[in-house]
Write a structure and sequence with these properties.
Structural class: alpha/beta
Distance between the termini: 70 Å
Number of helices: 22
Number of strands: 10
Radius of gyration: 34 Å
Shape: elongated
Helix content: 55-70%
Length: 576
Amino acid sequence: MERVFGKDRGSMGSFFRMLQKARLPYLWILAYIAITALLTNVGISVTEYTAELFAGNVNFGTVVLPFLAFTLLSQLISSVSKIMSNLCVARIDRNIRKMIWSKTVRLPLRYYEKNKPKEMISRITTDITAISQLIMQVFVAILTSAYTLVITLGKIGSYDQKLMIALIAVLPLNLVIAFVMGKMKFGVLDLVNQKNAELTQTIAEKTNNLLLVKSYGKEEKELQTGQEKMKGFYKSSILNAWLGFATPMYALVGAMQFIVIVMVGRSFYSSGALTLTQWIAYYGFAVNIVNQLSAYCVYWTTFKGSQGATRRVAQIMEEMEEDIENGEHVEHLCGDIELREVDFSYEDKLLFDKLNLKIPAGRVTALIGPSGSGKTTLLNLVERMYPVSGGKILFGGEDTARYSLKSFRSEISYVTQESTLFAGTIRDNILFGIKREVTDEELEKACTDAEIMDFIREQPEGFQTDVGEQGDKLSGGQKQRIAFARALLKQSDYLFMDEATAAMDIRGKDQVWKSVKRHMEGKTVLMVAHDRQTVQKADYIIVMHNGRIICQGEPEEVYAENTYYRELIGSEGQGR
């Protein structure tokens, strides 16, 4: 109940700032408003001619024919208005989705470490739909309804000013109910959307990792977890369904208003202030006004119900994104990699404190150390995936902070242990991120060097073979080889590798390393490794522990000084 009646957490300020960036289809919205205004004026004429007919005036030329013409025109304009409304909603959804997606891909990695990425599926689908409904069914609808109210009240005032004032006095009876129901609607729909996001995240995560679930016999547990999420979503949906009792409450208030309106109008008619035709027209206009006021109650509940969705989407837009274009364009990186007095924290945990390190250019450097030492984090800091809290990172003596992220990262090839692939073909994944034309000969040579070409030739569709979602049709080693082929095609002078051959067999590692040595001769390779075979490929060793550098230098020097390296490499590795 606290969630339902709790304090509104929507921030309309951030919502309107978001709309300023969304490039809404203003011309289409203005066209819709103009058509709706025209519909209002035609509706006034229809009501007046209807009153004439009910009063007994059936003159064909002056009443019947205009009534038929205005009724037909009203229906045509109403159809056009509905089409325009749907077009506006579709364009709003499209533009906001494009804006949120653009924001999403520019958010720093830190954001995804603090939030569940799969829950953003709901933000880009369900929540954005709520925003378009809010714009068209609340904000725009308020404008068009206000115009209708003014025009209709003006028409009633043309009959008798006192009648218009009396009608206005009895209208606000259902505003209190609307306020209470709106408060409830906000809390309930916010809860529904949150439970939907949690369900989406759970299903997406577990279906992408069914191999792990099945290999550990956790089908029943994950079945229960999914059912619990579904149960939570079901309960919130049921709670939302109970709000349907608001409809009879609105109907009761509307009936009370109807009775008062009839009594007011009849008193004016009995006193002779209104003619019969005006009395009938007044009744039609009054009913229309009550409907408009009831619509305002719906607008209010819709507004409150959508606040949770708008808040979540607006919060994404308030996040600081990476400005990948800001800074100097770097044409070519060269020289040693140096960290000077670098500080870095994961939330409240300090990982690097005044870290100083020089990674020699033109050599193969291995980062080794126990898990959690900060090796992968160091790679990510050097590639500027995270901003440092203090200190500098330099390439060839130049502070990398002066370079734009886009140009800087394009000078580095990075092969991760996961070797993430996208749904699509082998060719698409190898060429991902390659910003130049690649010939078939270059592509085949890179694949040969990465030891994946034989596998590709065995496939009936060759390079057009589908890899499946996240490359799940390929083995771990095959995915890593594709990632290596991509890195070789990038032709960078710096290659970062994070356990990049962990999924390969011994022969595969040797073959890939021969290719790396050949392609990266005289260039800089920085790798994280845990196995002896890979570490032996390095000609410079850095040993890390708890975010500190405890030893570095030539392999022979480190072997003599560091126990961890000796245990890793073994006595037979010293004579390599």
